[in-house]
Amino acid sequence: MELRNSGRLSFFSANLLFMIVMVLFVTVGYVAQKWSFHYGILITEFLLIAMPAILYAKVMGASLKGEMRFNRLGFIDALLVIISFIAAYFVAVFINLIAEILISMMGSLVLPDIPFAENPGEYLILLFIIAGSAGICEEILFRGFLLRSYERLGMWPDIIITSLFFSILHLNIQNMAAPFFLGIVLGFVVFKTNSIFAGMLGHFINNAISVTFGYIIMNIPFYKNFNIEQVQEGMTTQSLIGAAVVFGIILPFAAAIMTICLKTINDRHPEAAAYGSDIRIASIIRDIRLSWPLIISLLVFIGMMTLEIMIVVSGKH
After folding, report:
1. Rounded CA gap, 75 and 72, in Å?
2. Highest-confidence range of 105-114, 231-240, 306-315, by mean pLDDT?
3. What is the pTM assigned to this prediction?
4. How far is CA 22 from CA 93, 236, 294, in A?
């Protein structure tokens, strides 16, 4: 099997890089974020996610602009991406609520250790850390390096595989469904516009909406009296079903808007990228020379998910 794609990046380079990032994420990233949420996120995003992808691409002799699609994004396409991801946010929340309802039946959900902004200064800081850094760095890895590496499989297999990687690296059983869905939409807009800036913009919009909702909630007088334990106790299966009903009402309208905007975006990807080849993901998995980094990544993922399920079932957070 030919290991390289049309450019400098290959299936093996993608698998190896993903394994390296995952190991760094669960070791150095965990320690850094326990030390300081703000600095820990910045260390994780820039030094553990983006930098390995950029350095590895340079070692491979790849052109960052060409291989990672650092191409211009037109104004109209950018506007359509913004509208698409505002709508996609509500679809993603609904999908995640369904997943959380199922998980909540097993035990007690674990709230992510992510602070909410209580004033304009904190809001701007969180916008930069959660929306800005993630939008830039995670897109360099997933829709830059990995999407290009698996491109030879064809557009949709490529998008789905990199979306699965994107979901897995979140290492959060309660927050895997939404990233998988958003990864598909992000991959689609990057493919269609042939610009990684479309992915960065869409990713930023999604995370910015989440930060904004948190800021709004924290400034509602009723919620100022709640601590994290009280919020956690309120996340029952019944309350999640109620939220799912609300978002379910919004869902058809949001999905329709998202679909229309995505279809309207100008199709600028190279013609050859839309078609698959005789290479199949099964053949990559069967070839141990290519798949051993994926096996290690999968073992790390299974271990982390087993630990999370035990915490959910025990209710000891």
Report:
1. 9
2. 306-315
3. 0.92
4. 25, 31, 10
The dihedrals phi and psi of 73, each to the nearest 5 degrees, come to: -110, 120
Q: Cα(22)–Cα(148) distance, rounded to whole angstroms?
A: 19
DSSP, res 220: S
Q: How far is CA 149 from the centre of its chain?
A: 17
- What is the token pair recorded at 195? 């610009």
Greater confidence (154 vs 133) lies with 133
Contact 217, 144 (CB under 8 A): no
83-134: pLDDT as tens digits: 999 999 999 999 999 998 988 888 777 777 778 888 899 999 999 999 999 9
pLDDT in tens, 185-207: 999 999 999 999 999 999 999 99
217-222: Cβ within 8 A, 24+ apart: 217/116, 218/116, 218/117, 218/118, 219/118
Task: Give 60's DSSP letter.
Answer: T
Residues 6+ apart with CB under 8 A from 181: 88, 91, 92, 95, 163
